[in-house]
Amino acid sequence: MKHGMTITEKILARGAHKDAVKAGDIINADIDVAMCHDVTTPPAIRMLEEKGITGVFDKEKIVVTPDHFQPAKDIKSAELLKRLDTWAKRNDITHYYPVGKAGVCHALLPEKGHIRPGEIIVGGDSHTCTYGAFGAFSAGIGSTDLAAVLAAGELWFKVPESIKFVMNGELGECVYSKDMIIAIITRIGTDGALYKAMEFTGSTIESLSMEARMTITNMAIEAGGKSGIIAVDDTTREYLDRVLPEGKKDYQVFESDADAEYSNVEEFNCSELEPMVAMPNLPSNGETVSGQEGIPMDQAYIGSCTNGRIEDLRLAAKFLKGKKVKSRTIVVPATPSIWKQANDEGLLDIFYEAECVVAAPTCGACLGGFMGILAEGEKCISTTNRNFVGRMGHPKSEVYLASPATAAASAVEGKLTDPRKHL
Q1: 174 a known binding residue?
Q2: Level-2 CATH architecture, domain 7-268
């Protein structure tokens, strides 16, 4: 008996020039966008050069931005940035954002209009799944696969099974998309969606802004997902109308068929959710903040590809306004445009008055690179996506994942704090 297709299967079928595909099929698909940054792209460049390949498949379909170690923190990172810069200029990459224009990749690409529904997008970064918020198939790949994509413009995939997450109900006070995704990962575990497409649907998803949706798809990988995806609606279209350049405003929208097959369906009553915190050392160690209050925090970090967008900074500023932080607090707008908008709206003044550090766009602290490393025994409340052992510094430091509201409220108190107390 023939079944309908999921949104993911339809997109992969289009990319593979097939009428239909099903979970488990091995396909070769055309790549619409390849994202490159300073950590995984230089090894890919080296592989290509060793094979005598100096060109790229399409200079228009590659987007390049340094972000993990920019501005360069040491000689090794400077060499990475130089290698990326030399390669991008040599190949005349159209969409290259060097230092000064560079931003956290998964915030920069949507903002600059590089993400469109129905397309296949890959990047040398595990959180490339973020772009699925726009009804695209988007997945992280390693440097070897990235090298193949840069040369050939196509890649093989095993069509993933899909899990449907039906999210209904009205979110309560101080409950946000970060709390939703922590609750999801806590229920299914860090391997609960291993090599599966996580399809998010329901009235709660429909009520979210694009920024909030990107927070959810960003963390699909933390459940082992191959991708995360949300169907296109009016909210998506309004965002795309604003950011897509002329000539790129036409795109193909796919929706899952009513009889599409899913490996399983998970339903959530989101009106029952509370502010959440992922305790060390797994994103699946979710607990209600109210049940864990009082743990001292040495540092608060507000930023990253998960929660460094303008909506996140506005939320943090709401809880920091007129107060002083008791934990050292680092705020990192994810792109230059977000930095400027935060400045124009007076948010940076609020952070300054609260005695926070405001940095240039970078991934640095999130991956334990620089600009916020933790010492032995230190604890950090963070709006990032990972809290593995040693993720932000010393192996005996601890990272607690939460929303910008919980992070800001905790920074003010100097300890893990339920943001509802600061309304």
Answers
A1: no
A2: 2-Layer Sandwich (3.30)
